[in-house]
Amino acid sequence: MAYRFKKQIFGFLDLIRFSKIVDIRKAKLAEGSAAPLPEDYRVNATARILHPGNRKAILTEVITENADTKTYVFDLGTQMLFRAGQYVMLSAKVGDGYVARPYAVSSSPYAALREGKVAVTVKKAGFFSNWLFDNAEVGGEFAINGPSGYFHYESLKDRPLVVGVAGGSGITPFYSMAQAIAEGSEDFRLVLFYGARTKADLVFKEKLDALVSDKFKVVYVLSDEEKAEFEHGFVTAELIKKYVNE
User: Fold this and answer.
1) Where are the alpha helices (DSSP H) in 32-119?
2) Which fold has domain 52-148?
3) Keywords for this entry (predicted)?
4) Is 42 exposed, middle or buried (0-12, 13-18, 19+ CB in 10 A)?
5) pTM score
């Protein structure tokens, strides 16, 4: 009986509070500041820098890496912040419509921050990539959206030593990481196993070799030919253990 009476009392008090809710809200609004709201909030300004949407991108350079791989360098005209390992969405007008495809950024974060330049490395395969090979010319106008993706180093969850395995054009995010390590924008050690059919199929070999340091090491693995200073076969657990003791 006492419990039932208690519930009735609390229910009655709730009704009293509800009847006064309009007056309470009006009083709270009257106590508020009369200062006008800012035209822009700092968090919104930061969000526009980090996620600006589509950017106009002018193609400034085309670099032939090997028979079926090219690097395209774009000038954004403004800074871009990204983490090594992320990707951008590249789009262009093709015929009467627009075509877009994600590509990992192969250039360094500093180049985007200092010069507003971003590079993507493309293997000739697929509709848009083939179109780039056959039609993209210096001075052409494109659009870049991003950066996006979480394939980057995160000190809170990743160990100081990272083992990377790449094949073919999959080298692009790791090449960006190697540059970031050399420039100091990333602080971790990277041991990279890079597999290809032949030496001629390797992309960025000379550039990767130039970045080797106590924080970056690269092991080349060729499946279809045997050469001195190259591992032969495929990337296996045994091969990784040969070079990584931790």
Assistant:
1) 42-50, 109-115
2) Elongation Factor Tu (Ef-tu); domain 3 (2.40.30)
3) 2Fe-2S, FAD, Flavoprotein, Iron, Iron-sulfur, Metal-binding, Oxidoreductase
4) exposed
5) 0.78
